[in-house]
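Residues pack. One example:


***
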Amino acid sequence: MALRVIAILAVSTVLSFVGLQFFTDLSLDKLTSDRLIGWNLIHLDNASQDIELPLGLYTTIGLLVNCMINVFILLNLCLKGRVVSMVFVHDSIDPVNFFYQFNVLGMHEFDSDRKRMSVILGYPDNSVKVFVKGADTFMLKVIDRSFKMDLVRATEAHLHSYSSMGLRTLVIGMRDLNASEFEQWHASFEAASTAVFGRAAMLRKVSSIVENSLAILGASSIEDKLQQGVPESIESLRIAGIKVWVLTGDKQETAISIGYYSKLLTSNMTQITINSKNRESCRKSLQDALVMSKKLMSTSGVANNAEGSSHATPVALIIDGTSLVHILDSELEEQLFQLASRSSVVLCCCVTPLQKAGIVALVKNRTSDMTLAIGDGANDVSMIQMPDVGIGISGQEGRQAVMASDFAMGQFRFSVPLLLIHSHWNYQRLGYMILYNFYRNAVVVLVLFWAFFDAAGTGLFWLLLLGIIVTALLPHLVVKFVYQYYFPDDIQICREAEKIAYDRVVESGQVEMLRISDNPSR
């Protein structure tokens, strides 16, 4: 397994996140720092390095956590064990002289409002430190910029560079807590943890006591590769006339880069970006964007269609979560909907789970179209439950999305046969069987009516029983398992040869066109 370790910007201290509940300062001794520098893993200039790692050592639910754990294993730093709130770490080469015990004094879990998590550790020398990791846009607000400004600027430059490459970034910071600060935090933390009502809000308020004036340790970047077939799947869905919107928590640069990699964005699209800090600014940005979209549609010679018909000059709407805070649940929703309806692609970045659900509700409540949402993590649960159909993808992010979905699949590319093949089969089968049952009921009733006068009811029971078996049970089974009007090979061949568009497969039942022109026998 090849692991790409992106440069972690730090000078004298390094942060290790092992699992969700184990953070520790790796500057345990000069030997560790020398090893890290010798490996060229921690510096300010180099960007990345490929390392071959053994398999089957640790399994975690996060890419960053897994990456750093394996790096520390290469550096001979191992997690010895954990007992309640005590964590033991030792050097695998010299476990006797390099054995450390840390006390996990408390932890603030990640939430979508703070966009960060923190842990308070007690060190062997009785000192107390708090370590924080989180989204760069939120972490940079609580960083003490008077501390190593050159490191802060270098980190910001690297963050921008990594985001433009489509990498997911996090910022890491820490600070020492004196005795009075720790006592204040500990008392508030205990009270909030045992609260019956409003516990989450109280814990969020307590976290602000320690999550401030942080010394920046650096940043990490992880290459979260696209699954196999994602670009082709998005292209197929768009050919079929399905509008694809992407709602992500990634920052704008990362989201745009991934949009190009996945073929969601193309070079011929005109991008309209809305990044506003207040409601009035959002209003003006939306009005200007609506005017621009109308001009693009008029110059393309296509009539304005608020339902989102395609036009010669495709428009990509890019909007961030800060703008959505002022747009959703206000009179600006209608303007956003009109603008999004005229856009070929909508890309929402830095959005929270509730904002994802709000965007889906915006479309669902204003159109008669069927809506579908696909997600793979716990932060997608509210979005998956909002539309008409929800699909959960099982993977490294856990099974919360799968448990909340209507359909579950292993990879995103499986959504193409689900939507374009199986949905078409079900549509045709249901339509066929509805008409068949009307015909069957008419025939059975007429036969029974004739037999009643001719045979005075003799044998009607057996005739009815036989009729149910022959005309009801068997046809349903045959149609359910055998009837396939369009075969998967036919659809794939037609797509590759560009002889038929996917939308004809989707719309064939609606326009009563039940044939493939190149193969009338089917």
The chain has a mean pLDDT of 75. The CA atoms of residues 65 and 82 lie 17 Å apart. The longest strand covers residues 99-108. Residues 2-222 form one domain.
